[in-house]
Amino acid sequence: MLKKYQKDGKIDEVSTNAIGRIKQMKQLYKDDPDMMETISFFMMLRKLEDLKTERIGEFRKNVALKIQFRGEEVNVNLEQLKVYAEMMEKFINTTKFFLNPEEFTKKKKR
Questions:
Q1: Which of 15, 50, 54, 105 is surrounded by the fewest CB atoms within 10 Å?
Q2: What is the total count of domains within the chain?
Q3: Pairwise CA distance, residues 26 & 84, whole Å
Q4: Closest CA to 39 of 58, 54, 51, 24
């Protein structure tokens, strides 16, 4: 997406590191709450191994993962995983449309 923005002249260059690319995406999509939520989710996933986590619940019953992210407690349970899956599906479709709107609309009509 950033390369397309560069090609369209909306940004001068694409950052070479991940944090710089995240900052560029935040700047470009600062008015899009869905994209900002997806970026925040991506940042949490990037740091997941280093974050304080705790398993909650028993096998198959109320299983969750408690994560400390940015000073907040995030409980990732089955319902939250569904929310994340829907968010990622929306992000993927938005990205496909952004990169190739003609091809995306052709596939949707089939």
A1: 50
A2: 1
A3: 19
A4: 24
